[in-house]
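Handout for the seminar on molecular recognition.
Each group receives one record of this type.
Step one: identify the two inputs.
Step two: read the structure output and locate the region that could contact shikimate-3-phosphate.
Step three: write two sentences on what you found, then compare them with the reference statements printed after the record.
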Amino acid sequence: MPRHTFTASPPLTGRLRVPGDKSISHRALMFAGLAIGESRITGLLEGEDVLATAAAMRQLGAQIERGADSTWTVHGVGVGSLLEPAGALDMGNSGTSTRLMMGLLASHDITATFTGDASLSGRPMNRVIEPLSQMGASFEASSGGTLPCMLRGASPAVPITYRLPVASAQVKSAVLLAGLNTPGITRVIEPVPTRDHTERMLRGFGAALEVGEEKGERIIAIHGEADLRPLDVIVPGDPSSAAFFIVAALLVPGSDLVIENVGLNPTRAGIVTVLRQMGGSIEELDPREVGGEPVADLRVRHSALSGVDVDPAIVPSMVDEFPVLFVAAAMAQGVTRTTGLEELRVKESDRLAAMAAALTLAGARVEEHENGLTIHGSGGDPFPGTAAGASVVTRLDHRIAMSMAVAGLVSRDGVGVDDTSPINTSFPTFMGLLNEAAR
Ligand code: S3P
């Protein structure tokens, strides 16, 4: 468990590039693994979560290779032709790998067991087990609907129309992916829009997919059984990884940093909107499209921030960015109130409890509520920091580790982080980029 103390930083300057988008990387490997023929993926995130997806797709029959130029080549097996894996599918820390693969396998006539680390083994799977069972798959989950979990797929599966009870792109995607190998039309009704990478990319791979709207709700329909054709995918930079550097540059006095190639899909970019509302200077340079997704370089300058009431309607478009937003709020002038965040309690950790505890230990004033945090900002004064030898607890959660790393950069005495290893799940170059930008 590598412990690290993050200390007051010189200004963050220059240009840096964050790794590929995690959500898009998972999907690129999975869909390419289902297409017949060769797909090439550039800019793939080579973090542990995505490597877990690659390993599982190989166990299911896809041929996946990394070239010396870090282009990944995938030879898919074809929809309906996934093989039964010889051993358990170890999903590590990755909820996205687990839930999306459960969808893929649910409409194949195979049996597979999913396992994961202590964090993933505590996360709720009933949210996908329920709709996939309606489609004909059966599950033997551990108590409370958790991993380890055995899945028995059904072929042919039954198409359903499923209204999402929680705003979750993972649940939406699981049902749509099961629909790929299900004869007929599988529909998902989305009362609140969530990230739409599955829809965008499935179309690119040739699936017949329609998106409509009825009474303010999105309706996504996929026609099965589908044939996917190979596609070359360019993965844009991950806005969720960029968020740590955006907030760091806003908070560290004197910073003027350009973060290149950041994906700005509107279903992901809520953090930029809220930080601007708080007074953050974030400029979009050279807006363009990469791999079917809007992208820009972001120039971020140190700014005095003010507290805000965050509109709960924006939550799905920044659901992973709240931990680092809380850090920004703790340095702002005035109070920041967040609500509608109950989903944060079932991420890699209970992020409301984890961040309330971590920020309090670092000297911030935080109140934890059932569905959000209220944060009393310091008006720009640095965090006092953790006492000598003390460290905040990351709970196997990469985003807690990186958020508190950012807090350390604007602290008086430094912030100790008990375990930085989870950072490798989503952002293996984080420490290196931080050292380069803060020179
Ligand atoms: C993801 C969806 C989100 C997000 C996760 C990645 C995805 O989860 O928190 O990091 O790639 O679909 P939920 O769909 O459970 O909100």
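Reference statements: The pocket of shikimate-3-phosphate is lined by residues 23, 96, 168-170, 173, 195, 319-320, 343 (CB under 6 Å). The mean pLDDT is 98.
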